[in-house]
Write a structure and sequence with these properties.
With 244 residues, this protein is mainly α. It is 86% helix and 0% strand. Bound molecules: zinc ion.
Length: 244
């Protein structure tokens, strides 16, 4: 039940990010930089130690989880490049944009948010401490998911009500994902492999989505402050993971 509670916070975060994006898209760089540090630290200080603890406790081979990490990273990389190929072609015909490309990209984000929710649920199945920190990682970056959903819909000329409807769907996805984990209990080996996959996924979105977006309009002086915030996010999670 705790997982559902935290997925509701993810719902609010996604919705907030999306609504914020409708008005103040250019002011989100600081939050994005901080989030990237949070994701890096959650992988390093929570997910990887938990994977090795599970492996030790149940006499499992942790290299399966590491293979899942690489697979997760590559899966999201290839998925996103496939969608970005569409984007590149779209910009060749600036006056000729297809709302359905925006819809498709936004639906891919909804699928991603579903995994966010499953990640929270399974992390709580592993332990409360891991669940808590994974929930923090999901809640902080979900405002970027909301922002991206609205951004994708609007740049592809979807009407605002349709963008908002997609945003609501994206916000509901983590709650549905977390709720789904109440219906099944995975064996330790599957939890370990999923946590590895989820670590690859979080690393990928931090490195490939969030940091480039955070620095997209930053000059040299702003970049230093943004990097400082990324480091701050990482250090903060280090201490949270010590206490949790
Ligand atoms: Zn997400």
């Amino acid at each position: 039940m705790t997982a559902i509670f935290f997925s509701l916070a993810a719902f609010v975060s996604t919705l907030g990010g999306g609504l914020f994006a409708l008005r103040y898209r250019d002011h989100l760089h600081y939050l994005l930089s901080f989030t990237a540090g949070v994701l890096l630290a959650v992988v390093s200080f929570e997910l990887l130690p938990e994977i090795f603890e599970l492996a030790h406790e149940h006499a499992l081979d942790p290299s399966w989880a590491m293979a899942a990490l690489v697979a997760g990273f590559l899966f999201f990389h290839s998925g996103e490049k496939f969608i970005l190929i569409h984007h590149a072609h779209e910009s060749d015909y600036a006056a000729h944009r297809h709302p359905h490309v925006g819809m498709l990209s936004a639906l891919a984000l909804v699928g991603h948010s579903l995994l966010d929710g499953v990640g929270i649920g399974l992390a709580f199945q592993a332990s409360t401490a891991v669940g808590l920190v994974v929930a923090i990682a999901v809640i902080t970056h979900d405002c970027c998911d909301g922002l991206n959903t609205v951004g994708l819909m609007l740049t592809h000329r979807n009407p605002t009500p349709r963008a908002v409807a997609m945003l609501v769907l994206d916000a509901l996805a983590p709650v549905i994902g977390a709720a789904s984990t109440l219906l099944f209990q995975l064996p330790p080996v599957a939890v370990m492999v999923y946590l590895g996959f989820f670590a690859g996924f979080l690393l990928y979105i931090g490195v490939s989505d969030i940091l480039p977006e955070a620095h997209s309009k930053a000059g040299p002086s702003t970049a230093i402050r943004l990097i400082g915030l990324t480091a701050f996010g990482a250090v903060l999670i280090y201490f949270v993971s010590r206490w949790a």
